[in-house]
Amino acid sequence: MATDRLRGQLDPMLLAVLANGPAHGYAVITDLHQRSGGVFDLPEGTVYPALHRLERAGMLTSSWEPGTTRRRRVYSLTARGRRSLATERKQWKAFAGGVNLVLAGAT
Amino acid sequence: MSDPIDDYLDALLLRLLDDPSRHGNDVAAIRRAVAESEDHLRETQRAAMADGAGDVAAAQLAVDRFGPVNDVAGRFRRSGTRRSDLTSGAVVRTLWLVTGIGLVAIGISGLVADAFGAFWSTSFVAGDFPGVTYTAARCAQYAQLAPGYATCEQAATAHHFGEVVQYRVAAGVLGLLVLLAYRGWVALQRRRGRSTALVPVTLVGAGGAALFGVAAAALLLNSVGQEARGMSSGSGAYLSAGLVSLLVASGFALVLVRSATRQGHP
Fold it and tell me: CA of B35: which chain A residue's CA is closest?
């Protein structure tokens, strides 16, 4: 259920993980899983298309990691991505606050 | 024993390549998607082996955690639907292709109409409604245009039948030239490394099915309506065009269904 709810919020979650610094896909997924306390356990292969989509939207930039024997793509947040993340955080706080107020009043 | 990760990557590659709307530069995106997927799967396999899993079991675990290949491929394809896929260039290329297909369909309907004339009668395709008459001058023209017929009505029908078949076949030949020109242009663009992407294939399928489906419905209803009113003369012209439109609409619908199925939306 938590994973289903995550789908609509995946993009800001990925931006939030990458706000800590550049990371490759495997690290992004591991971090997302760990930071959610294991609650978000979505199919890992679905994260890469989301990263590609965010890159096409100008929120992320990526490049092959230099100096490694394996080809590994590293993603970084762009200025546009940071602005989008700030907006998403603000909207989420307002939304979550509203939901909390309603649910807290329910009996 | 085959490697589950290799099998998965093979299936992923095949599904990503099996998309007629993707050409040229998109190959790089496909290669990148497969490379990243392989890196992730091998990393997961290594982690599982470090936890004590066997080689194959760890690979299978990595594949299971990555998700169903159809779902992942569909998401990669949708993530590749760039804004540029919907720019005027992609729309013009798509219209170019659909126009060529439409003109060829008209040409085929001309051949079908010709067959109707041969197997039934030319009046079924190009006969006049009951009560239609011609002036003496017009009859003289028809006699010149279609000599050898006993009556003015027969000459007029023969002339109109020829027009239906010839004009449609001419449109079909034009359509073949349009498609040949498109093919040549695509080859040239690919050599130059430029994009030849169409609008998303689902949109092509839906648009084509709707366009030719509506045309088929209108033409077939017209034909059936004429027959129902006892005016079979000329209804074969609509019937031939309607049947070919239905066939083309079915082709586009098949493209739509295949595309939706591949993307995980049966």
Answer: A71
- Going by C-beta distance under 8 Å and a sequence separation of 6 or more, which residues neighbour residue B103? B171, B172, B174, B175, B176, B178
Q: Which chain B residues in 43-82 lie under 8 Å from chain A, judged by CB atoms? A: 43-44, 65-68, 71-72, 75-76, 78-80, 82
What pLDDT shows up at residue B23? 44
Residue B192 CA to residue B184 CA, distance in Å, equals 13
In chain B, which residues have pLDDT < 70? 1, 19-26, 80-87, 190-197, 232, 261-266
Say what the pTM is. Answer: 0.52
DSSP H or E stretch at residue B143:
helix B136-145
- Complex ipTM: 0.83
Secondary structure (H, E, C), B1-45: CCCHHHHHHHHHHHHHHCCCCCCCCHHHHHHHHHHHHHHHHHHHH
Q: With an 8 Å Cβ cutoff, are B29 and A50 in contact? A: no
